[in-house]
Design brief:
disordered C terminus, 5-stranded antiparallel beta sheet, mainly beta, binds zinc ion
Length: 119
Protein backbone atom coordinates (compact mmCIF):
# COMPACT_ATOMS: atom_id res chain seq x y z
CA UNK A 1 0.00 0.00 0.00
CA UNK A 2 1.52 3.25 -1.13
CA UNK A 3 -1.25 5.46 0.18
CA UNK A 4 -2.77 5.04 3.60
CA UNK A 5 -6.06 6.85 4.09
CA UNK A 6 -6.53 8.88 7.24
CA UNK A 7 -9.45 10.70 8.73
CA UNK A 8 -9.79 13.04 11.64
CA UNK A 9 -13.27 12.82 13.07
CA UNK A 10 -14.79 15.17 15.55
CA UNK A 11 -18.05 13.83 16.81
CA UNK A 12 -20.27 13.23 13.82
CA UNK A 13 -18.24 15.48 11.57
CA UNK A 14 -15.34 14.26 9.48
CA UNK A 15 -13.07 17.20 10.01
CA UNK A 16 -10.42 16.17 7.57
CA UNK A 17 -9.33 13.28 5.41
CA UNK A 18 -6.63 12.42 2.95
CA UNK A 19 -3.67 10.13 2.50
CA UNK A 20 -0.35 9.40 4.11
CA UNK A 21 2.66 8.35 2.07
CA UNK A 22 6.17 7.32 2.97
CA UNK A 23 9.02 9.76 2.35
CA UNK A 24 12.38 8.02 2.10
CA UNK A 25 14.18 11.35 2.26
CA UNK A 26 12.67 12.32 5.60
CA UNK A 27 12.28 8.73 6.84
CA UNK A 28 8.75 9.45 7.93
CA UNK A 29 5.21 9.77 6.63
CA UNK A 30 3.81 12.92 5.09
CA UNK A 31 0.15 13.83 4.86
CA UNK A 32 -1.83 14.97 1.84
CA UNK A 33 -5.13 16.57 2.80
CA UNK A 34 -7.78 15.99 0.15
CA UNK A 35 -10.90 16.91 2.07
CA UNK A 36 -11.63 19.19 5.00
CA UNK A 37 -14.79 20.45 6.61
CA UNK A 38 -13.21 23.82 7.19
CA UNK A 39 -10.80 25.51 4.86
CA UNK A 40 -8.85 27.47 7.44
CA UNK A 41 -6.90 26.19 10.41
CA UNK A 42 -7.27 27.37 14.00
CA UNK A 43 -4.98 30.31 13.31
CA UNK A 44 -7.06 31.35 10.31
CA UNK A 45 -4.50 30.28 7.74
CA UNK A 46 -5.82 28.71 4.56
CA UNK A 47 -5.42 24.92 4.55
CA UNK A 48 -3.62 23.53 1.55
CA UNK A 49 -5.73 20.92 -0.19
CA UNK A 50 -4.49 18.35 -2.68
CA UNK A 51 -6.27 16.67 -5.51
CA UNK A 52 -5.76 12.96 -6.18
CA UNK A 53 -6.28 11.37 -9.58
CA UNK A 54 -7.83 8.27 -7.98
CA UNK A 55 -4.93 6.00 -8.89
CA UNK A 56 -3.55 4.09 -5.89
CA UNK A 57 -0.68 2.27 -7.62
CA UNK A 58 0.74 5.17 -9.64
CA UNK A 59 -0.88 8.15 -7.96
CA UNK A 60 -0.68 11.76 -8.98
CA UNK A 61 -1.39 14.59 -6.59
CA UNK A 62 -1.38 18.29 -7.11
CA UNK A 63 -0.14 20.78 -6.16
CA UNK A 64 3.30 19.83 -4.81
CA UNK A 65 3.73 18.63 -1.24
CA UNK A 66 5.72 20.85 1.07
CA UNK A 67 6.50 20.45 4.76
CA UNK A 68 5.15 23.02 7.17
CA UNK A 69 7.59 25.88 7.83
CA UNK A 70 8.05 24.78 11.45
CA UNK A 71 8.45 21.08 10.70
CA UNK A 72 12.23 21.09 10.93
CA UNK A 73 13.73 19.57 7.82
CA UNK A 74 12.40 21.11 4.61
CA UNK A 75 10.95 18.74 2.04
CA UNK A 76 9.19 19.63 -1.19
CA UNK A 77 8.20 17.19 -3.89
CA UNK A 78 5.81 16.49 -6.70
CA UNK A 79 3.93 13.21 -6.80
CA UNK A 80 3.30 12.22 -10.38
CA UNK A 81 2.37 8.78 -11.73
CA UNK A 82 3.81 7.01 -8.68
CA UNK A 83 7.09 8.93 -8.67
CA UNK A 84 8.33 11.30 -6.01
CA UNK A 85 10.12 14.19 -7.66
CA UNK A 86 12.15 15.87 -4.96
CA UNK A 87 12.90 19.52 -5.45
CA UNK A 88 16.34 21.01 -4.99
CA UNK A 89 15.34 22.88 -1.85
CA UNK A 90 14.88 19.64 0.11
CA UNK A 91 17.15 19.43 3.13
CA UNK A 92 17.91 15.73 2.75
CA UNK A 93 20.02 13.54 0.51
CA UNK A 94 17.31 12.98 -2.10
CA UNK A 95 17.14 16.65 -3.12
CA UNK A 96 16.82 16.90 -6.89
CA UNK A 97 16.19 13.17 -7.36
CA UNK A 98 13.22 11.24 -8.66
CA UNK A 99 12.35 7.95 -6.96
CA UNK A 100 9.55 5.42 -7.13
CA UNK A 101 7.00 5.77 -4.38
CA UNK A 102 7.60 3.29 -1.57
CA UNK A 103 4.97 1.14 0.04
CA UNK A 104 4.06 2.28 3.52
CA UNK A 105 6.12 0.35 6.07
CA UNK A 106 3.56 -1.64 7.99
CA UNK A 107 5.21 -0.92 11.30
CA UNK A 108 5.30 2.79 10.60
CA UNK A 109 1.76 3.35 9.45
CA UNK A 110 0.54 4.53 12.81
CA UNK A 111 3.54 6.66 13.60
CA UNK A 112 2.09 9.81 12.21
CA UNK A 113 1.46 12.58 14.67
CA UNK A 114 -1.42 14.66 13.46
CA UNK A 115 -1.69 18.08 14.95
CA UNK A 116 -4.57 18.70 17.27
CA UNK A 117 -7.02 21.25 16.06
CA UNK A 118 -9.52 23.49 17.76
CA UNK A 119 -12.41 25.62 16.69
ZN1 LIG B 1 9.93 14.33 3.02
Amino acid sequence: MKLKPYTIDRGEVTEESGYQFWCRGCDTVHVLRTNAATITDAAGAHKLMHTHDGNFEQPTFSPSYQTEPDAGKRCQLFISEGKLKYQWNCEHELAGQEVDMDHMPTTQGERIALRPFSL
